[in-house]
Amino acid sequence: MSQFDAIIIGGGVNGLIAGTLLGRRGKNVCIIEKSNRFGGMASYSVDGGPTLAHSLYNLSPRVLSDIGIDPQHPVLSGKPVSTVSLSEDGRHIVFKNEGVFWSEGAKHPESDAWTDLTQQLITYGGLLRQLAEAPPPGGQKAILSRGGLNEFLRLAKLGIGLKKLGKPEMRRFLQVVLSNVHDIVLDDLPEGSVAGMLAADAIWGSATGPRSPGTVFNLIYRLGHGGNITQPAGGMSALTDLMVEAAQKAGCVLMPETEVFRILLDDDTVSGVATNDGRTISTPIVLSNLAPKLTSLMTGHSIFDIETTRQFRNIRARGTAAKVNLRLKDSSPLPGLPDELADERLIYAPSVGYVEAAFNPAKYRQMSKAPVIEAFKMQTADGASWLSTIVQYAPSDLEGGWTETAKEQLAEITVETLSRALPGLGDQIAGKQVITPDQIESATGAPGGHWHHAEMSLDQLLTLRPANGMSRYSMGPKGLFQCGAATHPGGDVMGLAGRNAALAALEAQP
Known about the structure:
Helices cover 35% and strands 16% of the residues.
């Protein structure tokens, strides 16, 4: 029997961050991962192809500081990328920090309106980031305790920030944050590719369309740290390797290819875990990077009341994003795309209406025949050239299941859709990989293959995430905490869920 101060179940990004933070605070920590590679969805790949995640949006600077990674580390020095909205007429639209431009360089007529809207949303994101960097408000803390005082000060700071906006802007904030992206974007922009890009950024990884309530919150969530998109030097695997290195430096013991099948309890208090290879590991604290339902199966439902068990069962996590990796014959430029845009982020979302129409089939368990697509051209470690694409909407519960025929159909739809703007793309393709949401779930444990382990909807946010009464990371038995993407504030390689959970576990110690 081994003895640790804390055990982390699941070595994804949030699990690595939680374990590293605890290790740096003097705890003896073990991180257990069932696969042979740490990093979870961020580093998962098939047969050497591109990883599921192919760019970095939201890695929190506060997380980097807490786990001892220098923000200037070479892995994090990858250049910011621009977004290119692909157009069938070949006149693509390029989104940069300084505005919107046609691919030939001229300023787009909607540039100023786009800049004003995105800067407004970035401002709102900065306010909400204060809530993301701590457990959601509420709980049983006495206001005069240290934790209660910090929470009060945090909410006061948010209130001051809102007041500084002025009354008209504060009203606008309250209107926007609970609205749908269709209405908000088309209030400020005409229908078309500029509006369509923003609509696409509001729905990635979710089972929602632009008209769904709360989708503006998803867009603000992505803009919370300024909206910059980068590709780590060496790819996402290099980033997760850096996190593994940080965990080791913090003294964490890493156990790959080990699966926990039981969380052990003694009088409703965590006492350890049992693994599939027959080991019993003793600890008073377990942080689970798995979804709440999977975690509850490890403890057994008998320790939870009926209402809590019902809530576990009803957390919505319906993945709708598939990964289609297109292996290219060589490193030649993509057809129809200027050389200077070859390494940028490519989006196919011609309008807000197109994005909504793409969502409609997914409501009825069908794959979209005209999907929304994000793509990056990249090279893998073996030197092969790929077009790495995320295809939205490909539902996890596809009618008839994800058969080989269905996968081939999705790959063909992906190529056909991109070929509208990149004519001749099909001639450059040497092979295809299709990674569907059900496959993502099987490999990583993410329910439904969902990016956030739980839908980022209005009834599953803040104090309701992942469910009412379970928003502050502790879960049932004393010493058991959730640290995964299903908890506040979600996933997206942000790392804040793992950080917040680790701090909550430390605060709970006598």
